[in-house]
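Hi team,

Filling in the usual template for the complex we talked about on Friday. All components are listed, including any nucleic acid strands or ligand strings, so the model treats them as one assembly.

SUBMITTER: L.P.
PURPOSE: interface mapping
COMPONENTS: two
RESIDUES: 586
SEQUENCES:
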Amino acid sequence: MAWETVIGLEIHVQLSTRSKIFSGAATAYGAPPNTQACAIDLGLPGVLPVLNVEAVRKAIKFGLAIEATIANHSVFARKNYFYPDLPKGYQISQYEMPIVSRGKLAIILDDGTSKTIGITRAHLEEDAGKSLHEDFHGMTGIDLNRAGTALLEIVSEPEMRSAREAAIYMKKVHTLVRYLNISDGNMQEGSFRCDANVSIRPMGEAKLGTRTEIKNLNSFRFVEQAILHEINRQREILETGGQVAQETRLYDPDRNETRTMRSKEEANDYRYFPDPDLLTVAISPGDIELIRVELPELPDAKRQRFIGEYALTEYDSDYLTANREIADYFEQTASAALTVYASASQPHNHNTAKLSANTIMGELSAALNKHNLDITSSPVSPEMLGGMIRRIEDNTISGKIAKQVFEAMWNGEGDADTIIASRGLRQVTDSGMLEALVTEVINAYPDQVDQYRAGKDKVLGFLVGQIMKKSQGKANPQQVNDILREKLKP
Amino acid sequence: MSSLDKAEIQKIAWLARLAIDEGDMAGYSRDLSNILKLVEQMNSIDTTTVDPLAHPLELNARMRPDQVTESNQREKFQACAPAIKDGLYLVPKVID
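RESULT (copied from the run log):
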């Protein structure tokens, strides 16, 4: 039977506020246990939570970026459950009247088509602490540094139809929160994590199948793998006449499988109610407008602009706008490369833009990967890279020699002009010199010359190679080609 | 819903992690059912023109600037904890 997969994601994003959502304790990652857990985070008697304005602003920023409704009045609720990583016995979250509702996000599928995913809501809540299950003589260790960190929970509509779509959507949300600078998005440190609701139904069936919720998904790859695994598990159950149990499952990346965490019968009854310790949050249209003007250019707009303004391909544009740092690096490189050409009538030279894109996606990203560096800590600055591209563009060096120049810049030998001068890499374009080289090679390889004249065109490449070698790579390859062809004419 | 039976009382007690004596069950059932009856009585009032209220005080929240104002007081907090190790609070084993 043909099955259709239905997936909705709940993404938890830690907001990059300095202090916690309801207390003045620090949120820095990696501090010694419980050194950033104050009386409020510990849930000691007599304390009162006070909302961090920056958490609210960051949530609104996200809401505006997904064209959602921002609530005029938003309410915090208590979600009641007993677990030692949450000492109060409840988590402060939102239930009715979340801060952000009814947004949408367009994703681009692998076949190039666009699909819009509805975002039901995004609400503010506090993160829980961490339980450490190593052996403390049969006890569990609790670190409450994370307790109270501001979270934005982003809940999608069940509109994704494959594991791949879910991963693409998750990446898109990740890109967006990084562009908006509302989260560092660090998945290793748990700043960005995801639960997936997965069900399948016979193709064409309108009614949803029974869903399971998979927890503990902290990488794009795990989301895809876990959902694929879960789809297969559900299909096997249904095709052998069984029923899928509604339950929460935990993904184990080491074994690539999901296993039952708790069944519906044991499911928590959270008994949400408005938190009497916190008053309604009022958000005026004026507040929202002040935040709207702070929005940066968003990924989709930037991608379109790169295609239009720099004549880049969709592929290049996708790559370069995947994060803000790479996009900025590209634009700085392209404008540095352009100085000699820039004019009012020709603000961008498409060739230098394309060369900039290629070099960033090629040499630069390879070197960054090799040294495990982020683009913001590249030893080659955009200005230096742009300077090198300028010299390719004005024929001072060939693309091949540029690789040497890039390596030398990476190793700290200075900018492109310095390296070209000190290493004597300037391309030979003097036709007299080139003709002499061509003649030398023709005389040295009479057999190959005969073969070429007899119609073996491929031999030309060999002869060009010999000439380039003699020039130590510095001859202009196009000129060499032209001169050689001319001289070999019968 | 206006009357809670024994099973419902037991469930509510479990959710709140309260141990209730068998002998007190009837009393709790009566008291809680009476509270529900009061709520039902309020349901009969026409509130179509009244906005829902999340809090009895009709005030809006005051927010605080995003500043770290708390310092590390782990020693003090942990002085009253029943069990600690390496800076962690120790609790009876919990398994996910």
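MY TAKE: The beta strands of chain B are 84-85, 88-92. Chain B has a mean pLDDT of 90.

Thanks, L.
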